[in-house]
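Colleagues,

Please find the record for the two-part complex below.
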Amino acid sequence: MAMGGGASFPFQWPSDPGLDAVALPPLPTVVPDAAAAGVAYYAAADMHAAMPSALPDFAAALAAMRREEEEAAGIRLVHLLMSCAGAVEAGDPAAASAHLADAHAALAAVSPSSGIGRVAVHFSAALSRRLFPPTPSPPTPATQPPAEAAADHAFLYHQFYEAGPYLKFAHFTANQAILEAVHGCTHVHIIDFNLMQGLQWPALIQALALRPGGPPSLRLTGIGPPSPPGRDDLRDVGVRLADLARSVRVHFSFRGVAANRLDEVRPWMLQVSQGEAVAVNSVLQLHRLVAGDSDSDDPARAAAAPIDAVLECVASMRPRVFAVVEQEADHNKAGFLDRFTEALFYYSAVFDSLDAASGGGGAVDAAAEAYLEREICDIVCGEGAERRERHEPLRRWRDRLGRAGLAGVPLGANALRQARMLVGLFSGEGHCVEEADGCLTLGWHGRPLFSASAWRAEENNHQSDSNADASSSGGGSEESNISCSS
Amino acid sequence: MGGPAASPAPRQPEQADVTELELRIQLLGGGVVGYNINDNADILAEILARLDGRSLAAAACVCRLWAAVARRDAVWEALCLRHVGPAPPAGPATRAVVAALGGYRRLYRLCLGPALDRLGRAAQAHHHHHHQVARAHHQHRLSLSLSLSLFSIDCYERLGAGTSAGRKPPPPSSLLFLCKPVDVS
């Protein structure tokens, strides 16, 4: 199949809506690029070729046929969406809207509670947003007052945190990496690239409180967007964490750094002191800094990107550990159709897994869906500087981090065991945690969705861990706050 | 209520059962010395500490003394430590941290109990579907550190609920997911 850049789209799907499900032309056996990731979901393609020949029970036959019809309808819908995306890439808006209209019609045939139904709704909405951009006057997320937007985002994030195992997996694995890396250190400074509500840190504070040898003195620097005047969200989170730390007698101090983008943060703002063990934590943040220009398979162009500035900053702090969790997907491709297809299969898997995690009744939390919908919209509609969700697979992160002078730290058996235990608590046999080259990936039925890894600066000068500083004792916690805007 | 051997009046079965239970325990002491389990709260605590979660909760409904004894965190501590493993030596430090976060009783009620139930149901369903020999009951599929981590997040979320401007509904408990039905597909 010709991919991307061709004058003809790869899928010539008959647009006659009167086609019976059984009479569908044979499906292409290799779905572009998604074959590598997510075929498991569409293995149904093979099943269509051989209808069950002899069925003992008529009711069972009927149910099976209905299922097959639904699956066929779902697959047809997918192909319609991809045809539309192909038309968009080829620059043919008329054909694109035609396909999109067909897709909308096909949506009606697919049950909205099935995995593909829900995902397709979001993708077709995103496509129509791309084809017919809304007029600027109604408030879009970009023009919403920043306070509202941030609060909404925080709420959706929290719901997403509760709905599935992903963020918990991210936090717990990163915490384990940090815990192991700062073993024996008396002063620990953690820099969190995206504080949000600070949900990652109570568990680490508790684990540090219980570590053999007693807790270290903990400093947390939380980076987040600036708060509207009259509020200080970062400080509020810091106060809550300080309360918790005080109750478990961990010496804790907090500093908030307000910045709209990570590359606005300079090392001096973080105020790293001599002799403290630095741990940097980035959960789903690095992909937003990747090359502004989409044709970035050329490392020379990529070098100008903000990501390299940030990685340099991290490396210059000589962290004991740099914990990185990212989506395991390739959504930063140059070609729109490639990206669209990858994203379609990725988010289908995520929605499926969310469905299973919420009990399998099709009752996925609406806010968690909305959180993902924003990502989908960004991937499909955003171009150039507007696109922030530029997910890249782990092997590309390895290259980038390696170029910045960071070496991988294997995550270890404890992290794996804990991750498996955690994921085992969530329903659905489909979730799996795999280990590869010292990194952990959380996946759904074999399709990796999120990857967690740990890094440190190469040629680490091992300073003595004991700190001559006379630090104040007991559970008193103080927090100072410095806000630096761009 | 009738004699010890007579069945209780069906008017209020639970109440009658409870009273009969008390009576039976009193009479178990026999007529010789008149020993009553309620005489020694520490021995009662030792016994209750060996119960499972549901029985312990039921025991707390027996009478005020039992309720008070069942409320002792040491009793719940024994229960919790029995179910998680590999058991680290739970010293005073662990006790202090758990107490700060809300206590073992709360840890069991919010985290360990639902988690064990959930793992038990999943194991049962698995067994049912795959006709395998059920795993040994005391295979530890939960560690103390993991449950404490989840517990600390919950504690933290509750800390926040009090201070947030009541614009949005209070944040969901991080442990609610444990109560969701298990998908055994």
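Chain B touches chain A at residues 93-94, 96-97, 100-101, 115, 118-119, 122, 126, 141-143, 145-146, 148-153, 155-157, 159-160, 163, 167-168, 171-172, 174, 176-178, 180-185 (CB under 8 Å).

Comments are welcome before we finalize the supplementary table.
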